Amino acid sequence: MKAHAVEANADGLIGPTHSYAGLSPGNLASSLNKGEASNPRAAVLQGLDKMKRLADLGLPQYVLPPHERPDIAFLRSLGFTGIDARVLEQAWKDAPSFAAAACSASPMWAANAATVTPSADSADGRVHFTPANLVTNLHRSLEHRQTQAALNALFPDPTRFAIHDALPPVAHLADEGAANHVRLCAEHGQPGVNLLVWGREAYEPWSGPYPARQTREASEAIARRHGASGAVLARQSRAAIAGGTFHNDVVCVGALDTLFHHDLAFEDTAGTHAAIRAAATGFDPIFVEVSSADLSLADAISSYLFNSMLVSLPGEDRLTLICPTETRDNARSHAVAQGLTASNGPIGRVEYVDVRQSMRNGGGPACLRLRVVLTEAEQAATNPSMRLTDTLHARLSQWGNTHYRDTLTPADLADPALLDESRRALDELTGILSLGSGFYPFQRT
Ligand code: SUG
Description:
35% of the residues lie in helices and 17% in strands. By secondary structure, it is of the alpha/beta class. It has a single domain (5-69, 104-444), classed as 5-stranded Propeller (L-arginine/glycine Amidinotransferase, Chain A), CATH 3.75.10. The strands form five sheets. It has a three-stranded mixed beta sheet with strand order 2-1-15, sandwiched between helices. A three-stranded mixed beta sheet has the order 3-4-5. Strands 6-7-8 form a three-stranded mixed beta sheet, sandwiched between helices. The longest helix has 17 residues, at 40-56. It is globular. The protein binds N~2~-(3-carboxypropanoyl)-L-arginine. N~2~-(3-carboxypropanoyl)-L-arginine is lined by residues 19-24, 27, 30, 104, 106, 109, 111-112, 140, 179, 246-247, 249-250, 361-363, 367.
């Protein structure tokens, strides 16, 4: 008999350099909004309010700190020298694309932080984490070491938590973390099915219009190193990637026994369903599939119906789907969402959250959170300063209001004052979240 467990969320706190730099080919929102002015202050407050909604609904909620940006150490590795402000200035002059990558606040999308295997599924009974190497996009490849440090700060007990290194950062092992992983189960604390969705094989010639960001071999290696039971590997459909589905979680989400997905999510839908059924022990999976006739892939992507949080709330029999407001604004998506609750299916309620600042970079409610199934003993072993309470929500909102700008264009990223502002904010945050001394590179020099 396994211990009772719940699905906690760890959200990426949105950083002070949140901007629209058009850094992610194949992510249509990122390309479409390139060059627009962002509002980092509104962004961080929207993210915090979303976290509070989940905490108020009764789920444990944790905060993952933003990374140090601009990433001066990365620019130094490219040969830029002198004081930090000069490194930044020269990089913007000589290598603006690299400078833009060094400024991205992309660690906010915690679904890409790591792949997580709960203790109920792992060979050694610990919770396993592999930070994603995110090698497909330069700006995201800068994340995994600091992500590992953040996970170590949140889950400090090595007898309960195993935080691995990222997979070797090469294209053959391209990994985007939990955005391509869905866990199904009867109860969170019972062994589950781990659906790992990949877009291409390591040695496959790739000719699609957009990159496939996850290799089959990366997914296999993670299941192997975590000792994950119930692993099912499924190929993401080529049509989905070509249409702008840069992660599987743009068209698919699951919780407990329910997988909710678009009919173009998988290359072989019937085979994927059959493999999940075969791997499921103690429950019959329920597939809620939305057809292209009811919702085109383009509408699914622009409205982010599936990039929602599907959650099991304390005391409720049916699941709740937490969608971005863009889903409500799209008549077809809204009709599908209403149809879900009107039916007698597993999804009983739909709620909406405003994360528009993140959405304009292709990051919906599901992108902003990393799901971590935890027993009570495991929850007790987390860093208490990183758990969102009403007090921490108020404190971080005040912190964001104090330190963040309310407008930022990509050109503003070159402003050396932004470097100082960001560092001041992160320095204060280090104390608020008890991250330990020297958590950020700038604190170590
Ligand atoms: O990797 N956007 C992110 C969005 C990640 C969404 N995550 C999930 N689907 N789980 C990405 O494409 C855009 C940054 C810019 O263009 O400035 C960006 O990185």
